[in-house]
Amino acid sequence: MKKTIISLLIATSFTPFFAYAEEGDWVVRLRAVNVSPNEDSKLGRTVNNVVGASVMTPSAELAVSDKVIPELDISYYITKNIAAELILAVGTRHNVSIQGDRAGVVGNQALGSVNLLPPTLTVQWHFNPDQTFDPYVGAGINYTIMLDRNLKGSAGAINGNKIKIDSDSWGPALQAGFDINLKDGWLINADVKYVWLDTDVKLKGAVTGNAWRKIDSLDINPWVVGIGIGKKF
């Protein structure tokens, strides 16, 4: 009996301690994420309707650039399978430009950049909370705050005209990823989210009679793909 106990103690001393999430646990993750807009823009057709003439190629659109940013999220495990995650990120600045306009009156051009703050709350289902490899799926809601929404025409018929992102955005979010549980509560995480984000874009200048007129309903709808580390508490 004494030999059995000693053998178990020796075996345990060489076994890594893996801390799996349980009800009431908190997990903090830090990720590097790439925010890649999947934009849908009807700029050309909308502008032509506003001015009552074909001044832009109908397929012309607003393009929004990718951005890599740090992301911090905090999860609370309601049960060992169900967790609520609040995703926090610094403002993500994206360059905005007109692309695909071959008509020449407005033309392809840079309009500046916008800064977006996208806090997101999701509820996740963890499939294998008691295993080293723990995949999950989640769904929730996003609220994107437009911190810096002012743009400006830089060429053609809208050179110097004011352009603005008109409104903040509420939208759903979907999520999938996995944790790899390590020793002492540490983990490696990979995660992908799709966020529905839409806003109106307005222009004020000579082509609109110096009044603010809507020129696009811009769906930014980014893919947010990240990898990082986390710690259970």
Describe the fold and architecture:
With 233 residues, this protein is mainly β. The chain has helices at 2-13, 43-51, and strands at 26-37, 61-64, 67-77, 82-89, 92-99, 109-117, 120-126, 133-148, 150-152, 162-165, 169-181, 186-195, 198-204, 213-219, 222-232. An eight-stranded antiparallel beta barrel has the order 1-3-4-7-8-11-12-15. Strand 3 and strand 4 (82-89) form a beta hairpin. The chain is elongated.
Please give a quick description of this structure.
With 233 residues, the protein is mostly beta strands. The protein is built from two helices and 15 strands.
Spans of at least 5 consecutive residues with low confidence: 4-16
Q: Output mean pLDDT.
A: 89
Globular, elongated, flat, extended or rod-shaped: what is the shape?
elongated
Estimate percent helicity.
under 10%
How many DSSP-defined strands?
Answer: 15
Radius of gyration: 24 Å
Number of domains: 1
What is the CATH topology descriptor?
Answer: Porin
Give the topology.
Layout: H1 2-13, E1 26-37, H2 43-51, E2 61-64, E3 67-77, E4 82-89, E5 92-99, E6 109-117, E7 120-126, E8 133-148, E9 150-152, E10 162-165, E11 169-181, E12 186-195, E13 198-204, E14 213-219, E15 222-232
Antiparallel strand pairs: 1-3, 1-15, 2-5, 3-4, 4-7, 5-6, 6-8, 7-8, 8-11, 9-10, 10-13, 11-12, 12-15, 13-14
